[in-house]
Amino acid sequence: METGIIIQAFLLFALTNFAHSAEITGGNNTVKIPEYIIPCPRSHENINKCLANTFNHLRPYLKTGIEEIDVPSIDPLVIDNMVMENGRGPIKIKALFFNITADGASDYTVTGINADLSKYVIELKLHLPKVEATGKYDVDGNVLLFPIKSKGDFWAVFNDVNGAGRIYGKEFSDEKGVKFMAVEKILVDFRLKKTRFRLKDVFNDGNLIGEAMNQFLNRHSDEIVKEMRPAANAALAKYFKVFLNKAFVKLPMEVWLPDS
């Protein structure tokens, strides 16, 4: 789930280049720029700094959502469902998480961007102080030889989240010749300082089995996060690729990344 916050933040980048109620004029066309957008011209002398600044500028708008381009609030961040499966190593499980709600995404800070605009590759680093997530789960498998077959409600807190990601994009034009960017692939990774879990099994909540499972998960939280990170990355990347592309089709490149 924490990666979900990280990868949702890449949407922020897509919207991060816009000026306050400004206009871009080129030829006979005038493009109006909404207040949540600070454009970063391709010729900017420090394009990476410009993108990072505009990314952070978006925080208050993303906290409440941007209705005109169908961007929902990221605080809370709501994800319908997510499947994670890991069949190798000491943790072999298949987990379904659904009705996920995560708080804390709007407290992000972009700490660095490295963009190769000729190839539409954007690398991003950010920090989140705390993310708290709740939802439903259904898990079946083994964790460090401890058999787990459980479903119910979950609660998790992720502290001091440092994320890194890479977006691979491509340019395309609509029937009117307006240029847009589409996301072809997303890669993400993250590091956590501290993690806490709580599972409320529909059958074992409050009894010895349920308490033993929760104690075990928290005692081995570092190992669990490490082993499940690739599966979490893949699941979230798939989800947010679709999410980002829905937003990008409403954002012509002349608005957020003008040629001059």
UniProtKB/TrEMBL annotation:
GO terms for biological process: circadian rhythm. GO terms for cellular component: extracellular space. InterPro entries: Haemolymph_juvenile_hormone-bd (IPR010562), To_sf (IPR038606). SMART domains: JHBP. Residues 1-21 form the signal peptide. The keyword Transcription does not apply. Keywords: Biological rhythms, Signal. Belongs to the TO family. This is Uncharacterized protein. It comes from Phyllotreta striolata. The lineage of its organism: Eukaryota, Metazoa, Ecdysozoa, Arthropoda, Hexapoda.
